[in-house]
Amino acid sequence: MSRADHRHRHLARIAEVRAGAHAETVPYPIRIRRTEVVRTEPAGSGLVRVTLGGPGTAGFESHAPDEHVKILFPDPDGTLRLPEPNGDLLRWPKPFPRTREYTVRRYDPASGELDLDIALHNGGLGADWARAVRPGETVHVAGPPSGLIVPRGYDRYLVAGDLSAVPAVARWLEELPRTAVGWAFAEVADASEEIELAAPDGFEVHWLHRGAAAPGTSGLLARAVQEIRVRQGERLYAWIAGEAGEIKPLRRWLRSDLGLAREDFDVTGYWKRGVADFEDEHDHEH
């Protein structure tokens, strides 16, 4: 096998999984990239879109709606400690630098623009940065480390999340085939946090308004999702993300009530109430 073939073997694996019967997480070569802010703009009242560009985004890996990158922030004393390349991985310094993970909302290979939609949680490191950052500032991003590749042969799809997952929900709905059918649920505070979604015609889209309830406390998303009815014999793929405690009951529901195999759903805790630097909690086959 030539070096070029070896370097692109993940692309061949992505094609295999997409043409297969079950979803699978496929690792990518991980890079650390020096980018610069091109612009920022609101995406509804709850998100800020930070668009990154510059030579450092060339060749960015983007293949699946649930991809994420880490933004690296300086230490409190202003020191920026970056990981070093280590083959297809990165070698991280210790103690681990301050980072936050964000969904890859869009990557345009032609312009090199990379969009990250950042939820405006009060007092959050990333939210405060997104509010204040200006065009021309340098941003280092690492990843994505992998993507969840989902075949296009399921009969129905269920995509659901809270505000933190709205960027991934939006990308899911854009990238599914226009013939796909299913349900999308998004829990937000109110209509001001809704964004435009390019859903296939066969999708039911439900915006859930939690009102005055604090994020991650309402139970609204889990209750609404469990109202769907899947027809006998239909193959469903389910992707759900949000506050870890809120979505936890849905793992058992997908397995026990709907009878889904482990490789036919992904339930990911994107954040956890009271935990500033929570790492993703996944529940799917790696």
TrEMBL record:
Residues 25-151 form the FAD-binding FR-type domain. SUPFAM superfamilies: Riboflavin synthase domain-like. Pfam families: FAD_binding_9 (PF08021), SIP (PF04954). InterPro entries: FAD-bd_FR_type, FNR_nucleotide-bd, Riboflavin_synthase-like_b-brl, SIP_FAD-bd, SIP_fam, SIP_rossman_dom. PANTHER family: FERRIC REDUCTASE, NADPH-DEPENDENT, NADPH-DEPENDENT FERRIC-CHELATE REDUCTASE. This is Siderophore-interacting protein. It comes from Amycolatopsis ultiminotia.
